[in-house]
């Protein structure tokens, strides 16, 4: 990995990194610093990531299980009833031809059973015998039909959702070995920001302080109210102090604003004072320019990360999906998120040598993506109506009918929109 040490004398940014390369580089750095594995009870595992393959502790099913209500029979009928077996019970073996036990769906099939006769396809004779013709296909699930003991069912890096938790329970697990969830903090930079009331008098309302923690939680981060700090005063001293304090307790610090090199943009000098190395310093993407990701190695030898998000709200979210999402995937041991593809319903302009991330809404019936309005880098109205960003490659434009990649906006664990 190529990194650059932040310099307080730096006044111009280096050439921007290609957007796709930036995603790959950030994910690799995250994997190299993957968080430790921990054990969590099933009830607390939702939203985590498997740190070891999921395997059954026994064959699934562990014993032959009736798939219908009816009669477990031995030999040819009619059959004499000798008992009953319900789910959760163990029946005595059928040792004589011409005998049967009543059986419930999910119950263990007795040893010696030759067939299971469905109750609705059976009759009772005048002398109390059971008669009927069993189907040719066995009416029970055989041991190991779904999986065998120790068989890898899900690999390391699988996100844990309710379906995974249910499977783990059926495999006999009480706990799961998962990656510890990342903990994140947010530092809001900018003396011009208001934290309550309407904008006015040259000051604007901070829209990122209330919003970014929710996005981070949807990426699987833990963010407490105490970890959201700001506005931080526009001084180098305040920036360094805020960053140092946050890095002492979290894995990732996101900052808003200050990613340029203006008179009150102190992020780059603050990173230099902290001995940070840039993983990515500016990305060739619009909107979202400039953004950065740096790492700071603590006294314990473990890397922490600083994601510099632009101050313009939509640009900040572009930085989240471009740099923060791949980083968090790496930190939790997940693969780099694959981008789904959709068909453009309308043309989307290119942005020259930069990748254009264009807000779109998904028509789930037609399977097409439509660009939304109000998409300036300082606007959030378009974002509130969108499902994700269409990726228009450098040097190209989107034409109606094109199949293009899409970066989905993060959802709650278990939700799947694309």
From TrEMBL:
Keywords: Magnesium, Metal-binding, Molybdenum, Molybdenum cofactor biosynthesis, Transferase. Pathway: Cofactor biosynthesis; molybdopterin biosynthesis. GO terms for biological process: Mo-molybdopterin cofactor biosynthetic process. It catalyses: adenylyl-molybdopterin + molybdate = Mo-molybdopterin + AMP + H(+). The keyword GTP-binding does not apply. InterPro entries: MoaB/Mog-like_dom_sf, MoaB/Mog_dom, MoeA-like, MoeA_C_domain_IV, MoeA_C_domain_IV_sf, MoeA_linker/N, MoeA_linker/N_sf. Residues 185-330 form the MoaB/Mog domain. Its EC number is 2.10.1.1. Residues 129-155 are annotated as: Disordered. It comes from the Bacteria. Its cofactor is Mg(2+). GO terms for cellular component: cytosol. Pfam families: MoCF_biosynth, MoeA_C, MoeA_N. GO terms for molecular function: metal ion binding; molybdopterin molybdotransferase activity. The keyword Membrane does not apply. Catalyzes the insertion of molybdate into adenylated molybdopterin with the concomitant release of AMP. PANTHER family: GEPHYRIN, MOLYBDOPTERIN BIOSYNTHESIS PROTEIN. Belongs to the MoeA family. This is Molybdopterin molybdenumtransferase. It comes from Micromonospora phaseoli.
């Amino acid at each position: 990995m190529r990194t650059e040490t932040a310099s307080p004398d730096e006044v111009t940014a280096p050439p921007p990194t290609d957007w796709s390369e930036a995603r790959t580089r950030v994910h690799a750095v995250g994997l190299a610093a993957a968080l430790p594995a921990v054990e969590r009870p099933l009830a607390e595992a939702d939203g985590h990531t498997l740190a070891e393959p999921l395997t059954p502790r026994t064959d699934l099913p562990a014993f032959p299980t009736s798939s219908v209500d009816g009669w477990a029979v031995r030999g040819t009928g009619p059959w004499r009833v000798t008992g009953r077996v319900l789910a959760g019970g163990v029946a005595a073996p059928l040792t004589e031809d011409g005998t049967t036990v009543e059986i419930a769906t999910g119950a263990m099939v007795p040893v010696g059973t030759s067939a299971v006769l469905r109750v609705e396809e059976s009759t009772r004779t005048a002398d109390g015998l059971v008669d009927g013709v069993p189907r040719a296909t066995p009416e029970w699930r055989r041991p190991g039909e779904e999986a065998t003991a120790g068989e890898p069912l899900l690999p390391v890096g699988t996100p844990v959702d309710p379906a995974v938790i249910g499977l783990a329970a059926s495999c006999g697990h009480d706990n799961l070995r998962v990656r510890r969830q990342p903990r994140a903090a947010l530092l809001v930079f900018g003396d011009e920001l208001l934290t309550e009331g309407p904008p006015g008098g040259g000051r604007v309302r901070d829209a990122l302080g209330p919003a970014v923690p929710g996005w981070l939680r949807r990426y699987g981060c833990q963010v407490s109210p105490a970890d959201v700090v700001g506005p931080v005063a526009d001084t180098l001293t305040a920036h360094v102090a805020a960053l140092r304090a946050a890095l002492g307790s979290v894995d990732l610090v996101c900052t808003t604003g200050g990613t340029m090199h203006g008179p009150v943009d102190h992020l780059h000098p603050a990173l230099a004072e902290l001995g940070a190395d840039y993983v990515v310093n500016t990305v060739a993407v619009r909107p979202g320019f400039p953004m950065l990701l740096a790492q700071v190695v603590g006294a314990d030898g473990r890397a922490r990360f600083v994601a510099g998000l632009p101050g313009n709200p939509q640009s900040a979210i572009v930085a989240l999906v471009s740099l923060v999402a791949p980083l968090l995937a790496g930190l939790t041991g997940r693969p780099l998120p694959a981008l789904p593809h959709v068909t453009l319903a309308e043309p989307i302009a290119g942005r020259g040598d930069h990748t254009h991330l264009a807000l779109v809404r998904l028509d789930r019936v037609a399977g097409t993506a439509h660009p939304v309005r109000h998409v300036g880098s300082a606007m959030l109205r378009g974002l509130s109506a969108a499902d994700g960003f269409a990726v228009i490659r450098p040097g190209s434009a989107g034409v109606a009918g094109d199949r293009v990649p899409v970066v989905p906006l993060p959802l709650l664990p278990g939700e799947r929109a694309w």
